[in-house]
Amino acid sequence: FFIRLRRQPRFTGLLPLFGSVTGGTPLVLTGVDLDFDGVAACIFGSDRRAPMPAEVSAGEIRCRTVPPLDGLAQIVNITVRYFAEAPFLNIPTGLQFRFEPTPSLLRLNPTAVWRGKAIRAFGSDFSKALPM
What does each C-alpha distance from 92 to 3, 8, 60 come to in angstroms? Predict the structure, then answer.
């Protein structure tokens, strides 16, 4: 029998902390010994859909969010699934991601301005700047 001894991955950070409920937000999870296995994926909350593969290095895991199944704004725990061999290894990161409604811009007023002139934006869900 052959047993591989590895250090358990330790997660220390997440950027960004929030993104759109439409999914597709690029995430960077940071930590130590994250290259436990070369093939990994991020799992968001209790989502059971097949996850997209992530880019893995010793200090970072890069993945993209998937839309929440119910499409609602919510905070979810992030788990990293390593695919070394069955059964797959799920490691809770202790990190949370916040899904928020996507801002919608309806109009700008005035439509023509000069440098230094203020404009007003009208729409919904402008509470945060979301990566788009």
Answer: 23, 11, 15
